[in-house]
Structure to design on (170 residues):
């Protein structure tokens, strides 16, 4: 496939950023973050909570790899989630240097609640689109996630292809 001139790619990149920004300010995203704000839960904390809820028993290093952040950054996020009672950190049964993360009952309930808010917001939006446009959207977003993963050197896993529970992956 021939490469597009750089100016065209820059224009497309700007259009994508604008569209994602517009999407981020829509009602369904606002509902999610309104609930998170009530709990003093940051975007990064919610993403870690979603990950831990989907991967109980994961290691802190796993979280760092998935989100591309350092172990001290993960430690800070997990500390906050632990203080809020949403995540529990436990010792690894074999390696004392490794912590295992589990959602607490409150954390799992919150992750489920936030996920339900996302779905309730997105489903009516998708319902306003034709089946053809929904299919094209999914294919385009899957291609975007795959290309972004390749560009950053991260392996594309099933979660990325299916889409994480969040409305703004990352």
């Amino acid at each position: 496939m021939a490469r597009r001139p750089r100016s065209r790619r820059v224009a497309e990149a700007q259009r994508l950023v604008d569209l994602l920004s517009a999407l981020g300010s829509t009602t369904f995203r606002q509902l999610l973050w309104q609930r998170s704000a009530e709990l003093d839960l940051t975007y990064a904390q919610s993403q870690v909570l979603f990950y831990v809820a989907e991967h109980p028993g994961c290691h802190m290093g796993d979280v760092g790899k998935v989100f591309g952040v350092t172990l001290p950054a993960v430690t800070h996020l997990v500390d906050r989630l632990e203080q809020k009672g949403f995540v529990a950190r436990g010792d690894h049964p074999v390696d004392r240097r490794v912590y295992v993360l589990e959602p607490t009952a409150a954390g799992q309930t919150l992750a489920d609640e936030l996920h339900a808010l996302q779905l309730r917001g997105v489903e009516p939006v998708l319902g306003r689109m034709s089946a053809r446009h929904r299919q094209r959207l999914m294919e385009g977003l899957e291609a975007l996630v795959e290309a972004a993963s390749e560009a950053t050197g991260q392996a594309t896993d099933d979660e990325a292809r299916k889409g994480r529970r969040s409305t703004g992956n990352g």
About this structure: Confidence is low (pLDDT under 50) at residues 156-170. The longest helix spans residues 105-127. The chain has one domain: 10-128.
